[in-house]
Amino acid sequence: xxxxRSPLTPSEDITASYASTTSLAxxxxxxxxxxxxxxxxxxxxxxDTLTPEGIGAFIERYREEFGDMFVDDASxxxxxxxxxxxxxxxxxxxxSISFRDGFEREVTSIPRRTGQPTFDLGSIQIDKLAPxxxxxxxxxxxxxxxxxxxxxxxxxxxxxxxxxAENGLGHQGRIEVTPWGEISRSYPYGS
Length: 191
Fold this sequence. Notes:
two-stranded antiparallel ribbon, 191 residues, alpha+beta, 21% helix
């Protein structure tokens, strides 16, 4: 018997023989890549509460969120606003609400003043308020003044909207108007 030596070593010979007769893995099926689903972003329009339109939009969002339009006071600063109001189930306490394109509530342990007057945001006549806001420089005697903030309250039982303005150089003033659009007090620059 003649023996011939295979050019493969014994372990290579076994591995090669096994691999030729055995499939190591089934063939992979061909697949079509599935595209990832597109997610449409939810856009919330930014509300600039230093404009008549922004005040109107804030009031509407407030009504939708709380079901009424009563506040103890409110301040508007353009990109954010804050409100104080009675806690619905505990009217002797104050609820602080901040707004940055959405509402965040915080019940405080601060007692409300007995007989605290409330301000009805629904009483603001935006069309009567708008001329004061648009022409604030004329009213505060600073031609290049811009509104810095507004404060809404009903101190002493009289509803008022105070509109503050300045020009960045320290020239500032304010006017206080009624919700129906009458100037109740004016504090122009230089007075």
